[in-house]
UniProtKB/TrEMBL annotation:
Full protein name: Membrane protein
Organism per entry: Streptomyces minutiscleroticus
Lineage: Bacteria, Bacillati, Actinomycetota, Actinomycetes, Kitasatosporales
Listed Basic and acidic residues bias regions: 8-24
Domain of life: Bacteria
Signal sequence interval, chain numbering: none
Length: 501
């Protein structure tokens, strides 16, 4: 019989969703650790609560990713241009320690760099992160020793970010804490975590999503503003949130979030903008001026065209495509039979930015991992996408090995790399397609099928529609949930215990 404590817990809140009962892949994978978890772990009455387990798994996987970089740490970063690619262990971090003036003690944005770069080409908060790591790096020893320590210091700081991401995703959907394992076990997450400093912005964005799910609009805005001060992509989340709040009539909460984001971004950026404008603006001018680069479908077009488009043309076309994607996502939100979940639209808008951008660095997958888990927590679809990203991760390094190995031609030729790009694009489009299908057919949405509306939506969760278009604009019938028609329960993989009356 269940204990009195477990009974009281069940009376206070709905039972957590058990992935091993609704997801065949999760059920099969659980056999590797002895089968599905028991009720004590599900209800958090054990020492091994979901948050603790997932945080430890995330740290363990991050450590394995560090081990994967061992061949480069032992010398490939310093003594062989192609070997760091053949071992697939490249990282920007050690190279930029000297390349961006940290070894000489130059102050980012204020001190000019030797060479063509002139100033650090990263947003301000990321520059602060890089500078803080350089303060913790001893200035003694050879430059190779300093670069190794600098990478290790950054890896330690980024590991904290990885744990924060896993914990925030675990806690965003209250009844689905074990979905956080998708983040913790994502192979592309572990492989790309220490290539660059993207995890800082991803951690701040995941924390912002958690705050919004708790109805804390101001905290969401502040964290999203800080994330945008570390990387540009988080600001995109304000777009789908605007349309969702429009449909739900939640203007006050949106205004609070927007104000918090603007103030937080300005607090970080204004001092540097005022005292070192040229250095501050380098990130934005560099992004505009850089040509077509690795990983994008623009590179596919350029490499397979006799007359590749100019940078200016690509800038214009990429902007037009992104605007069209924004219009499409807004139309989807306003016409869907039931208001989409925030995480679904957040994933789609960032995926659209990645797919239309001039460059796709392998670590950009980190932007999507937590959003993908919240948008579509289905192991099969997530792993299909992850396999595609791992193929691309290996493909870009093998291609660079081919181009830097001279006459030896070790690695992947251009045609093979183009295939890797296509695999990445198709994998991302596939995940976008199933998310769009979930929006148009809410009965296929695994989150709503288990009885929730929008657990990441905060004030949007269960709110009635104030404005909608098309079929979504009709008044709800008696007994229908607010925000659209009801979800049909009892889909494939749903157990009787997971249904709500």
């Amino acid at each position: 019989m269940p204990s009195a404590e477990t009974t009281r817990t069940s009376e206070r809140e709905p039972e957590p969703v058990r992935p091993t009962r609704e997801d065949p892949v999760a059920a099969a994978g659980s056999e590797l650790i002895g089968g599905p978890l028991g009720r004590r772990v599900l209800f958090g009455t054990s020492t091994w609560t979901p948050v603790r387990v997932i945080a430890l798994v995330a740290i363990g996987m991050f450590a394995l990713g560090m081990v994967q970089k061992l061949p480069c740490y032992d010398g490939a970063w310093f003594f062989g241009a192609s070997s760091q690619y053949t071992h697939a262990c490249y990282s920007d971090i050690p190279h930029l320690y000297q390349g961006r003036g940290f070894a000489e003690g130059l102050v980012p944005y204020f001190d000019r760099l030797p060479g063509d770069m002139e100033y650090l080409e990263y947003p301000v908060l990321t520059g602060v992160f890089m500078e803080a790591a350089s303060w913790l790096t001893p200035g003694s020893g050879s430059i190779q020793d300093q670069e190794q320590i600098y990478w290790m210091v950054n890896a330690g700081m980024l590991m904290v970010c990885a744990a924060v991401i896993a914990v925030c995703v675990t806690r965003t959907h209250r009844r689905r804490p074990w979905d956080g394992l998708l983040v913790a076990l994502a192979p592309a997450f572990a492989l790309t975590a220490t290539i660059n400093w993207d995890l800082l912005a991803v951690a701040l964005t995941a924390a912002a999503m958690l705050m919004w799910s708790r109805g804390r609009a101001l905290a969401f805005g502040v964290l999203l503003g800080l994330a945008t001060a570390a990387k540009l992509y988080p600001v995109l989340l304000l777009g789908p949130l605007f349309v969702l709040c429009w449909r739900a009539g939640r203007w006050r909460e949106y205004g609070t979030a927007l104000a918090g984001a603007a103030v937080a971004w300005l607090v970080v950026n204004l001092p540097v903008m005022y005292f070192a404008f040229d250095g501050w603006s380098k990130f934005y001018t560099f992004s505009q001026e850089r040509g077509v680069d690795f990983g994008s479908f623009w590179l596919l077009l350029a490499q397979r065209s006799d007359d590749p488009p100019t940078t200016e043309t690509v800038n214009t076309l990429a902007t037009v495509l992104m605007l069209l994607a924004c219009v499409g996502i807004a139309a989807l939100c306003l016409t869907a039979p039931r208001r989409p979940r925030f995480a679904q639209l957040a994933f789609l808008i960032v995926a659209a930015f990645i797919l239309t951008n001039k460059v796709y660095s392998p670590q950009y997958v980190l932007w999507l991992v937590p959003l993908a888990v919240l948008a579509r927590p289905k192991w099969r679809d997530f792993l299909i996408w992850q396999v595609c990203e791992v193929v691309y991760f290996l493909g870009i390094w093998m291609y660079l090995a081919y181009t830097t190995s001279g006459d030896a031609h070790k690695g992947l030729p251009t045609e093979g790399y183009q295939l890797a790009i296509a695999v990445h694009l198709l994998g991302t489009l596939y995940l976008c397609a199933v998310v769009v299908r979930d929006i148009l057919m809410p009965e296929r949405d695994v989150v709503r099928r288990s009885g929730d509306d929008d657990p990441s939506g905060g004030v949007l969760d269960g709110a009635p529609d104030a404005f909608a278009l098309g079929v979504a604009a009709r008044p709800p019938r008696h007994g229908e949930p607010l925000g659209g028609p009801p979800v049909e329960w009892g889909g494939q993989g749903a157990s009787t215990e997971d249904r709500t009356p």
